[in-house]
Amino acid sequence: MIRFYFHPTPNPAKVALFLEEAGLPYEVVPVDTSKGQQHAPEFRAINPNGKVPAIVDTEGPAGSDTRVFDSSAILLYLAEKTGRFLGSPADKPELLSWLFFISSGLGPFSGQAVHFQYAAENESPYATNRYRRETERHYQVLNDHLEGREYIVGNEYTIADMSAWGWVDRAPRVFKGVDDPLSAYPNIKRLFDTVNAREAATRARAVGKDIEFKKVNDEETRRSLFPSNFPPAAG
Fold this sequence. Notes:
Elements: E1 2-6, H1 10-22, E2 26-30, H2 41-44, E3 54-57, E4 66-69, H3 71-82, H4 92-119, H5 125-145, H6 159-168, H7 171-174, H8 186-196, H9 199-206, H10 219-225
Parallel strand pairs: 1-2
Antiparallel strand pairs: 1-3, 3-4
Protein name: GST-like protein
Enzyme class: oxidoreductase
Organism: Pigmentiphaga litoralis
């Protein structure tokens, strides 16, 4: 059984997609990041970085509970555990390269673009411009790579495609003010539509829909999501 620590954001979405594709049994454990539940000691014991997603595999190596945190680490762990969605052995160098291109580039730059366009709107025009332009650059790199390719790596659907799907799904928010942001990246749009049409993607989108997560953007939310922006509590 996989205990899946979840909040409805792009990185957990990737893991939800894998779990649904692989048909692994799992239990959703909600972590409401707007309430600061990611900072609770019991969750920090699973992910010391206080971020979702994270998993605990109750049937890990030697039959023991095994924690894994960071979406790319989780995708790799589950892919190796099941022997699925890794492509061919010859594909592994490319798979790792593109998986980490998404996790260290396209994903975090997209997240920062969202932050400075919404949460910190008008506070730093330089930062807003930098993250938006760098996100555009990362999208263009992936779009160029996908020219003439059905999938990101080799000839098969892999965890690299799942990872991209999680973030590209948020392109309308990332590219604020653009009605159809993927029109500028037709190869990414084609890949996204291909993955999004899979039955597992529909099921992944339904994960957590029965859970009420906080949606109010108040001071508690801001302190929970951006604690480094606030001085530590006195005492």
